Amino acid sequence: MAENTKDPKNITTESSRGVPLEKVEQLMNKRLQDAKIEADKQIQGALVAVFGIFASIISFLTVEFQFLKTLNNLQQIVGFSLILFALLLGFNIALDYLTKSRLDNGISTQYKYFIAIISGIFIIGLISVYFGNDKFTKQKKINKKERYLIANKLNDLQLRCDQKIEICNKSIQLFEKSILKDIEVLNMRIKLLEK
Question: Is pTM, for the whole model, over 0.90?
C-alpha cells in the first residue's frame, strides 16, 4: 500500500492514514470556507474602523472650525478641542472594540489603558474650559465696570457741555437784545438827524 501512495498513477481512494480522500477534501473545503468567512469578517472590521476614523476626523475638523469662530479665549479653545478629541478618540476605540469583540473571544486589556488616556484628556479639557471660562467671566465683569465708568464720564461731560451751551445761548440772546437796542438807538438818531 505504501507503493500506491508514492506513485501518482496508482492513487487509491484512501490516504496514507487510512482516511478516505473524499473526507479529506470535505475537511479541506470546510476549512477553506471557514478561513474565507474569517477573512471577510476581518476585512469588514477593518473597513468599519477605517470609516469610523474618517468620520471622526471630519467631525473633529468641522466642529473645531465652528468653535474657532465663536470662542475668543485660548484656554477655552484648547479645552473644547481636547474634549472633542477625547470624545472622537473614544468613538474610534469603541469601534475598534466592537469589531474585535466580534472576531476574538478574548479581548486584551489594552482598552483599559486607552480608556484611562481618553478620560485624562477629557478631564484636562474640562479643567481648561472651566478656568478659561472663569477668566473670561472676570474679563467681562472688568469690561462691564469700565463701560459703566465710561458711560458715567460721558454723562458728566454731556451735562457740562449742555450747561455751557445753555450759558452761551443766554449770552447770545443778551447780546442780540443789546444789538437790537443799539440798532433802535441808531435808527432814532438817524431819524433825528434827518429832521
Answer: no
